[in-house]
Amino acid sequence: MKKTLKIITTILLPLLSLAACKHQAKEEEVVSENVTDAKKDTDHIKKEIYTDDFGDQLEVAINETQNTVVVRLNGKTYELKKSEELPEFTAGDAVYQFSDVRGEVTFLKKDYNMVLFHHKKNKPSSADTKMASY
């Protein structure tokens, strides 16, 4: 009887301690996820999707709080920093540059001056805008 009691306690005690450790780790993961969700809520993020003449799509997420731009093109993601010295909205890093100037969205590779994506936004026609006529 004593032998079976020793065997049961030697087997059950480590199993219970392992189960207790795993349970605490799961709670810590949930807490860390909630913290990141709260951080995302405080940032002001504007997302847009552009399609060029070839059917390629460029996804742009502009974080106005941190002045960063995340660009996704052809399954690749690029994180760029907003530039204050260039006109209108321009962001870039050492290799890539994203610009949204005068209704034209351009994403290019600086080293080769190669345009990877170009899109012209639809401008309102003269019929859509109200202007005074004399």
How does this structure look, described?
The protein contains 1 helix and 8 strands. With 134 residues, the chain is of the alpha+beta class. The protein has an 8-stranded antiparallel beta sheet, with no helix packed on it. The chain is elongated and about 85 Å long. Residues 23-32 have low confidence and may be disordered.
Give the radius of gyration.
27 Å
Distance, first to last CA: 109 Å
Class based on secondary structure composition and strand pairing: alpha+beta
Shape: elongated
Q: Element order, helices and strands?
A: HEEEEEEEE
Contiguous low-pLDDT stretches (5 residues minimum) are 23-32
Helix % is 25-40%
Strand content: 35-45%
Mean pLDDT: 75
How many H/I helical runs? 1
Largest sheet: 8 strands, antiparallel
Strand order of the largest sheet: 1-2-3-4-5-6-7-8
Task: Give me the count of strands.
Answer: 8
What are the salient characteristics of this protein?
134 residues, alpha+beta, eight-stranded antiparallel sheet
Describe what is shown at a glance.
The chain has 134 residues and is an alpha+beta fold. It contains one helix and eight strands.
Summarize the helices and strands and which ones pair or pack.
Elements: H1 2-42, E1 45-51, E2 57-63, E3 68-73, E4 76-83, E5 89-92, E6 96-101, E7 104-109, E8 114-120
Antiparallel strand pairs: 1-2, 2-3, 3-4, 4-5, 5-6, 6-7, 7-8
